[in-house]
Amino acid sequence: MVVVSLDQLRPGMVLAADLFSPQGRRLAQKGERLDERRLRVCKVWGVTEAMVEEPSGEDASLEAGGSDPDALAQAEQAANVFFSLSDPGLDVVQELRKVYVSRYAKRLERDPDAAQSPPQSPASIPPLGCDAEAIIRQELTLASLPDVFYRVVEALKSPRSSASYVAEVIGQDMSLSAKLLKMVNSPFYGFPNRIDTLPRAVAIVGANQLTNLAMGISVITLFQDVPAVLLDMRLFWRHSIGCGALARLLARNIGIDDAERVFVSGLLHDVGRLVMLRNFPGQAAAVLTKSHADLEPLYKTERTAWGFNHGTLAGQLLKAWRLPQQLLQNVGLHHAPGRADDPRETSILHVADIMAHAMMLGSSGTPVAPKLDMQAWRRLNVSPRAVEHLSRVVDGYVEDLERVFFHDDD
Predict the structure, then answer these.
(1) Can you give the pTM of this predicted structure?
(2) For site-directed labelling of 48, which of 75, 158, 281, 286 has its Cα 20 to 30 A away?
(3) Is residue 147 within 8 Å of 169, Cβ to Cβ?
């Protein structure tokens, strides 16, 4: 079963759970097959999403990556390298490979030069001369978040914060307010009626959820000026947005109360890499080059060279910003989800990160996918066949969210 938003629901889908309106009225029963009339009822009653059974048979078959056998052969070879750290016999790894091969082959058909040979490994990586804590201190002096960010964080932590107070705090930043309203009116949320004011957005989406989104938007804005040293920033943020969107879908699927926190964790999971690019561009570039030359996951090359990886660095940065502990752990431990106090959310982020790589949603800079932690996968209780379904759903969401974050003139 998988959670699908209203705009992605189609006639013929089978409900995996009873469908209720936001007011608590039961609109349809588990096992019922949706039709046009039922979908209209969902829109009238303000339903935003439903849990449906995974497709099977012909409905679940992924389109072939292309008719060009050479492109498919190259895609298969690329998949052997990209998933070399995970057991190819596992059902979920096979599903991830299937999606990757299809998309890689299509990319080769559009651009035959898309496949690149690994670069030559650098002779050495320049030393940092400092530890992770010193880097964070340097980062905090280099760039500061707006005051509204800290007021949003305090509002999130305080149990006495009312919906009106949260709306008032966020409303003090016109750009932030506009992006939030743009986001909640996007197909990613699928609300049937337009939300024109922050108080209404807080009432519908939730105060905690909206403050989490406000934090994520503020941080992305902070890192707009990172130099593109061996890393395409457009592709970097596309990967982050894809990871966040997949994480939210997975979180809703297993009943996480605050799926927006998981979404924001996905947005921020690689910001430690941006900290390094901004503060130590030469060393960060050398590590990127060595990772690609050695075909090693970038986080492992980072740890070997520096003694820490981008996840650890991002976790320390979020701690310095006084963000909630669960968000810190989600971001800081997404490559080691079993070490988290509550591994469910961190496991979601770990799986979503690998899925985003398999679906070729942008790029974080790593030449090979991290090894899939099977304990993390099992915690989600998701069928491997859901990978294919999610790959179909998430593309449109990523495009919508990119417009929210990076196109102010829309």
Answers:
(1) 0.83
(2) 158
(3) no
- Using the structure block, give the residue that is written with the tokens 């690994």: 118
Answer for the pair 373, 350: CB distance below 8 angstroms, yes or no: yes
Task: Please state, in angstroms and rounded to a whole number, the distance separating the CA atoms of residues 66 and 133.
Answer: 48
Non-local CB neighbours of 382 within 8 Å, separated by 6+ positions? 2, 250, 253, 254
Identify whether 118 is part of a domain.
no
Least confident interval from 153-167, 212-226, 372-386: 153-167
The string over 361-373, giving b where at least 16 C-beta atoms fall within 10 Å of a residue's C-beta and e elsewhere, is bbbbbbbbbbbbb
What residue numbers bound the domain in which 79 lies? 59-110
* Structure-model confidence comparison of residues 281 and 56, the more confident one: 281
Please give the Cα distance from 80 to 97 (Å, whole number).
9
Tell me the C-alpha to C-alpha distance, in Å, between residue 34 and each of 5, 13, 217. 14, 5, 35
**Residues 340 and 330: beta-carbon distance below 8 Å:** yes
Q: What is the length of the chain?
A: 410
**Residues 248, 271 within the same domain:** yes
> Which stretches of 144-206 are DSSP H helices?
147-157, 163-170, 174-184, 198-205
Confidence of residue 121 (pLDDT cuts 50, 70, 90): confident
Number of folded domains that form the chain: 3
The answer to whether residues 200 and 59 touch, using CB atoms and an 8 Å cutoff, is: no
Does 188 fall in a domain?
A: yes
